[in-house]
Amino acid sequence: MKYIKAILFILSFTVALIFFSCEKGTEPEQLKPGRRDYTWTVDTIKTFNTPLMKMWGTSATNVWAVGSGSSMDRQIWHYDGTKWATDGIWRGILPWCIYGFAQNDIWIGGSDGDIWHYDGNKWSMSLAYSKELNFKYYNIYFMDIWGENPNDVYAVGLADSSHTGLGDVRFGLMMHYNGTEWSRVNIEFTEGILMEIRKGSKTSSKYFMRNVIQNPDSTKFYTFDGKKRDKIYSEIGAIQTLTIIDNEILFNFNKGTYSYDNSIFKLVVENPFSTSWDAVYGRNKKDIIWMMDDGLTHYNGTNFEYILNFENYQFNDGVIRLNDGFVFEKEVFFVTHGNSNNYIFHGVLK
Fold it and tell me: How far apart, in whole angstroms, are the C-alpha atoms of residue 339 and residue 320?
């Protein structure tokens, strides 16, 4: 009997030890407040009437910036860790968005229904969707490209029948790439422009889209399950964006950032500054950067401070406006433009 009790005691102790070990292993890691000790430099990119609007990269030594304008040989720029450069090749594309998976697998979407691909050596056209529609729609723009892997990529934007004599109809357009070819996704008619599509891995298996409508100006958020879209939020006259931070979709509206789980928006933090803001970037919920009208503000899990203020810079180039950014582990890049030049703000943590 003594032996049985001893065996039972050992088994009980072992199970308890395993249980507490597993519990400790599943405890969430405490996030540290994001740092603010950036050293900033500014690179000037000279382009005539060609604002660079979007950025993407794999590392601080492989960053891309694109934009559309009259300088069609200076719309695609690359940073190699030392300098920004363009290949100077004229291409029949007006880029509006860029996204990729590796240095040799990058996509650009633009006007005229064009999508281009970079294989590490050269850019080549992958889709000219306006021709597939027989030019029925006067304007076709791809505003955003995003995908989970190289064989599952979405491009969203708009088709517009203005100036064709067919009436003024503008609706959201969605295309899908399966690793071989692009095809149109047959979603329910969506008035306006599909501006963004993203998917996080933490709280939902669905994609999220942002839709913008003019007259009156309004924004809507949708979920998309691969076949249909469902509206989850709409508001008139408000600046709204969505982003991925630490593999979670975050929604930005009414000067606040929200998570979305079980059909409920939950406030993460509210920006206290009165100056308007456009987009949000970050590494985690204690390291979030807001693009403001006059610079960049930062939330470290406790409070907000400016980490970049345009008052400290002198530009003889009209109004400076931030367009987009990209955040890496220890470096950040943000692009802005004036009347004739683009400026890249490059922040490095000390």
Answer: 8
